[in-house]
Amino acid sequence: MIKINILSSTDRPGSKAMNVSGYAAGILSRYVDTEVFSLEDYPLADVAGGKYGRTPQSVNEFNSSFLDADGFLFVIPEYNGSFPGILKIFIDYLPFPVALERRPISLIGESSGAFGAMRAVEQFEQILKYRKAYIFPERMFIQRVDKTFDSGSGLSSDVLQKLLEKQLKEFPEFVESLTKQLVEP
Ligand SMILES: Cc1cc2nc3c(=O)[nH]c(=O)nc-3n(C[C@H](O)[C@H](O)[C@H](O)COP(=O)(O)O)c2cc1C
């Protein structure tokens, strides 16, 4: 069975990103194996001072557990009109160039503001393109996340809830179609 790993892309304790990740895992688990990872667990202290080219064992272990999947869902909050700094650190210590190359990635943004982290997601997409990932075109931007999202029932808007469920149903199909193409030339 296909596996999709989810990254709650902040280290902020009690983040909405973690709540949204857990909720997304519940939907994805109808179709695939899935596991939630959080940058709260990233061994940040071990890269202090710049360990580029000398990636610590703890970071290699975090990276390889996360990368052991067929596809990835990043849940990204907006911090200062962008994505959290720790997400960039995470990317900077991934094995280069292979980690994300031709790997399917789905994106959900969430913020307390009105744009649902669209800026954060689209800036992150530039990095994903540089790393040659395959970005799933359906994306969700959860605006006013503190008012519009509930960890048990999802989004308060029926229309947006249907779109979220559609994204999470169709992403595994996207992953499967790419996996087949890579296996069967
Ligand atoms: C350092 C920091 C910067 C933030 N900057 C923005 C911002 O630019 N736009 C916005 O809509 N919300 C901003 N927020 C609020 C987050 O969107 C809010 O915390 C929301 O719950 C999503 O983040 P979370 O997953 O950490 O909970 C910021 C929060 C933090 C901690």
> What's the story with the biggest beta sheet?
6 strands, parallel
Give the uncertain stretches in residue-range form: none
Task: Supply the number of helical segments.
Answer: 6
Mean pLDDT: 97
Along the chain, the helix and strand elements come as: EHEHEHEHEEHEEH
Report the count of strand segments: 8
Summarize the model shown.
The chain has 185 residues and is an alpha/beta fold. Helix content is 41%, strand content 19%.
Overview of the structural elements:
It is globular, with a radius of gyration of 16 Å. The chain has 185 residues and is an alpha/beta fold. It has a single domain, classed as Rossmann fold (3-Layer(aba) Sandwich), CATH 3.40.50.360. The chain has helices spanning 16-28, 57-67, 85-92, 118-130, 145-148, 158-183; strands at 3-8, 33-38, 71-77, 104-110, 134-135, 140-142, 149-150, 154-155. It binds flavin mononucleotide. Flavin mononucleotide binds next to α1 and α5. Flavin mononucleotide (FMN) is lined by residues 10, 12, 15-17, 77-81, 110-113, 145-146.
Main features:
185 residues; alpha/beta; Rossmann fold; two-stranded antiparallel sheet; 6 helices; 8 strands; globular; binds flavin mononucleotide
SSE inventory with pairings:
Blueprint (H helix, E strand, L loop, with lengths): L2 E6 L7 H13 L4 E6 L18 H11 L3 E7 L7 H8 L11 E7 L7 H13 L3 E2 L4 E3 L2 H4 E2 L3 E2 L2 H26 L2
Parallel strand pairs: 1-2, 1-3, 3-4, 4-5, 4-6
Antiparallel strand pairs: 7-8
The structure holds flavin mononucleotide.
